[in-house]
Amino acid sequence: MKAAEIRELVCTPWHHGDCVDLSGVICEGALDLAGCDVTGVNFTGAFFPDGFDASGARFRGVSWFSHGHFGKAASFVEAVFTNDARFDQATFSGKASFERAEFRGIARFDRGDFVSGANFRSVACYGNFSLHGVWMRKQAEFQGAEWLGGLWCEAAQLPENADFADTQVHGRLWLRHAVVGNRRLQSSAFPLSYGYTYS
Q: What is each CA distance from 57 to 90, 105, 146, in whole angstroms?
């Protein structure tokens, strides 16, 4: 399906329960949703080989990208997810940026593969933020992030240079079997953590 056709389908007013099912779609051309209001959408298993730009977009309903593949850079800079956002088992072949994004539901990146690095600087998440089994290569930037619903990092594999400066964790901090480079990820990496820590 052509990128313009996808944009027309998903950039529509959202009503409670709405969800456009584009599971498994292959997008022809770079998908530009920058600044758009996006209705509920199911991109499970979708392939975006030419890039994805949702900078400043507002995802009004559920946002499912599980098992999706982003072939080039994927930008969700300053995007707002008003409902649950699922990126579990997604592959980001290009740089992925969620800088200053806001997650008002859960943010699930379980077993995701960030081949070219990930930027989560200054994100805010109100539900649980899950990196269970995630693999982040090259870079993992979390400076200034705030996780109000807790942070789950079971078995996460992060690069040696993963940066958690000025982060805050409210609620549960789960670090079991998580590693940074070849070292265990320690709670001391997080400047402020207000809940229980499991390591």
A: 19, 16, 20
Which tokens is 70 given? 């982003």
Domain ranges (residues) in the chain: 3-12+20-198
Q: Helices H, strands E: what count in the chain?
A: 1, 31
Q: How many CB atoms lie within 10 A of CB 146?
A: 16
- Position of tokens 């399906």? 1
Q: What is the DSSP string of 50-102?
A: T-EE-TT-EE-S-EE-TT-EE-S-EE-TT-EESS-EE-TT-EE-S-EE-TT-E
**Helix or strand (DSSP H, E) at 169:** strand 168-169
Q: How many CB atoms lie within 10 A of CB 119?
A: 22
Token reading at 113: 């593969």
**Segment 67-123, tens digit of pLDDT:** 999 999 999 999 999 999 999 999 999 999 999 999 999 999 999 999 999 999 999
At 139, list the tokens: 């870079």
Q: Confirm whether pTM is higher than 0.90.
A: yes
Residue 178 DSSP symbol: -
Structure tokens at 186: 């320690």
pLDDT tens sequence across 130-158? 999 999 999 999 999 999 999 999 999 99
